[in-house]
Specification:
71 residues, alpha+beta, three-stranded antiparallel sheet, 1 helix
Length: 71
């Protein structure tokens, strides 16, 4: 078993959630967190069957600030 990262955020154009795995680049969606995560797991497993990770490198998750553009 490999422990990977899931980033889940709301889609700006719909009511769906986007699920992204930074280690592989796989991206999917779901109507709720559980569905988005389940879909991401399935998509990532299929990806890894064809393109196994050679070396596990954890992504760095951080935040940063930008100036707001107000008119």
């Amino acid at each position: 078993m490999q422990k990977l990262t899931a980033v889940i955020y709301p889609d700006s154009d719909s009511d769906w959630l986007v699920a992204f795995n930074p280690e592989t680049g796989t991206t999917t969606q779901g109507k709720n967190v559980a569905e988005a995560l389940s879909n991401l797991k399935e998509a990532t497993e299929l990806y890894l069957e064809e393109f196994p990770l050679l070396e596990k490198q954890s992504p760095i998750l951080t935040t940063f600030e930008v100036a707001s553009a107000h008119a």
